[in-house]
Amino acid sequence: xxxxxxxxxxxxxxxxxxxxxxxxxxxxxxxxxxxxxxxxxxxxxxxxxxxxxxxxxxxxxxxxxxxxxxxxxxxxxxxxxxxxxxxxxxxxxxxxxxxxxxxxxxxxxxxxxxxxxxxxxxxxxxxxxxxxxxxxxxxxxxxxxxxxxxxxxxxxxxxxxxxxxxxxxxxxxxxxxxxxxxxxxxxxxxxxxxxxxxxxxxxxxxxxxxxxxxxxxxxxxxxxxxxxxxxxxxxxxxxxxxxxxxxxxxxxxxxxxxxxxxxxxxxxxxxxxxxxxxxxxxxxxxxx
Length: 288
What we know:
alpha+beta; Multidrug-efflux Transporter Regulator, Chain: A, Domain 2; coiled coil; 288 residues; MerR family transcriptional regulator; three-stranded antiparallel sheet; repressor; Multidrug-efflux Transporter 1 Regulator Bmrr, Chain A
């Protein structure tokens, strides 16, 4: 350290504060933190008196306060303005934490979802009954006059755009919905379309979208796993016949949920892995 008159070179100051020389040069050029003096050879020197100012700049910068806010505070620094700056910064941090928690919730939901998929894949490709929780979904109808993979994917991307434009976190789970009456009448594509799951706490925002917000009720579901596309009705017909044979009553819309999409295709199998789920009332069950 240069002890002469308690001045520090730019390299010494950078080392003490744990920042780079380039950062100090940048601060100088942009009038954020300037040297105490520059000698006739162009070398920058800083006094020990300046250390607290640089320390505060580094501290605020580390808390993600903008350089403009830091400069404004240092030029008009008193206890009240500093408290106001820190309160504003805390508010920004709390917002960021909330957004990060949303992303973590979506990630956890995706992990939980894949655990369910692993269990479904272990089952034989036969109908079965299971219980499902209530879900909120966003729905858009297909153009079924020319139903194909393109229409399915374009509808799904429209649903994603609706979520993004209304600041709704993308929950995991999407697929096709077939109206109850269409399933009962075996006119499956009539009124069918795509859906995407949405977090329950975002219903108010979802209601502002152009999509229809619907509820998949909690209760018993007749299910069958399959490989194939949702507009291919072979497995829907198998499940529909099984429901009838077992004297179950269809009480809601059918969902064909895409569990593993194109990104999971293999050379042996180039089809989506899905599960059809139809809400049913079991024989002898009581309902109000």
